[in-house]
Amino acid sequence: MKSNGAHSIQRSMGNAGRENRRGLDKSDTSDRSLEIASKSTKPRFGPRSSFHNQIKADVFTYFRDRKIDSKGGKVLYFKTCAFLSCVGLVYWLLVFSVQSELLAVLLAIALGVSIAGFNFNVTHDAMHEAYSKSHRLNQIVSGLADLMGFSSYMWRWKHNTFHHCYTNIIRVDTDVNPKVFRGLSAASPKTGIYRLQHCYLWMAYCLLSLKHHWIDDFKHLATGCIGEHTITGPRGLETVWLLAGKAMCSYWMIGIPLTRHRWSVVGLFYLITEFSLGLTLSVVFQLAHCVEQAEFVEIGDRAESDWAVHQIESTTDFCRGNRILTWCVGGLNYQIEHHLFPQISHIHYPAIAPIIENCCARWGVRYSLNRSLRTALASHGRFLRAPLRHQKHKCVSGLRNSNGGQSKNVVR
Can you list the alpha helix ranges (DSSP code H) found in 197-262? Predict the structure, then answer.
């Protein structure tokens, strides 16, 4: 008899396999199909390889042998309470208690970091159906992101569908904008002021959450598009919750503080909080995909590689041995593991990372890791200076397996 955990992980792996073959035509967190309308720009991956089957089997064996659930369970329930308490405490001190200006600035920064931590650990897992085995509970918890200013509906499209399926494919992965990261291709050269992007982008990162809160979500809602992709707009209660979330976020972040402080003070500390939140979100995600080791692919290239190989070679882990960082960022320093198995909770990534790395070593797939935060930040800095140098074009090659044979199905 298989345990509930084994059944859960098997479903997760089955979904991951279908995602590689269909391009994630069905979101792993939506209750209905999310079809990509812009099929003309939709790359196709090659057939699933023996390597992909082997890596799924190895991870499945880990959960089956230990009879553990692949979801977050009680650990995530605790982290939910911990991060909500942290956000609430910092907010109360900032709005109702503190008198020192310096301490208020530090609390505003801490509030932004706490909100980022809550989304890293809680709503991110929920939107990938990794928080709980209950779809309804995942939907409820993911909806908390709306109270923090981020539309959970738009996030599923942008992140779950376009980013996770087409990682680092230029103009298809909506998290990689060639208008922002200049020099990724010949079509977006680093000219003029863009030559200094390795300096000014660090400041631009601070604007990420503001842009999402007040521009992107409303733009996507009005136009029905994210980047070059057409999406199915929210319906009924989905639209109501999107707009209600914006209103409630504005109320607790701006409205309540205005009852106790001057508008200029509220505006200043609101911006400090948003800048802290935006910078934290940006840096964590950039260290996984916009570094020297991560591959980028042009839309015109034939993405013939196996989906799993593409995910591994376009993603980089960092600071894997740092337990404090791993706890704070919700395991997002284990991005390779997350991209291969998004429906497995992040609390299991440290355990399955060596399994995936060993499988990659046996089959000759490049597994990238920056061992410290300093080296990861330095790698991102060098990437910003010369991104085109790190763009790879996939070509046909064999993939050596553990027995020294070749798997002809894999293109790297």
Answer: 197-204, 208-211, 217-223, 237-250, 256-258
Q: Following CA atoms 401, 354, 63, 305 in sequence, which dihedral angle do they give, to the nearest 10 degrees?
A: -40
pLDDT tens-digit profile of 349-399? 999 999 999 999 999 999 999 999 999 999 999 888 876 554 554 432 333
Question: Could you tell me how many residues make up the chain?
Answer: 412
Residues 316 and 294: beta-carbon distance below 8 Å = yes
* Residue that wins the pLDDT comparison between 119 and 33: 119
- Domain ranges in the chain? 4-71+289-407, 73-287
CB 143 within 8 A of CB 129: no
Contacting residues for 412 by C-beta, under 8 A, at least 6 apart: 305, 309, 313, 365, 394, 395, 397, 399
Q: Which residues contact 94 (CB under 8 A, 6 or more apart)?
A: 104, 107, 108, 111, 269
For tokens 């329930």, the residue is 77
Q: Which two tokens stand for residue 142?
A: 């993911």
Which residues have CB under 8 Å from 124's CB, separation 6+? 330, 332, 346
Region 233-248: what's the mean pLDDT? 94
Angle 400-402-404 from CA coordinates, rounded to 5°? 55
Helix intervals (H) in 119-213 = 124-127, 135-142, 144-147, 152-155, 164-165, 197-204, 208-211
SS3 331: coil
Question: How far is it, in rounded angstroms, from Cα 27 to Cα 138?
Answer: 14
Q: Which residue has the tokens 């979500």?
A: 217
Integer angstrom CA distances of residue 209 from 136, 277, 380: 27, 7, 20
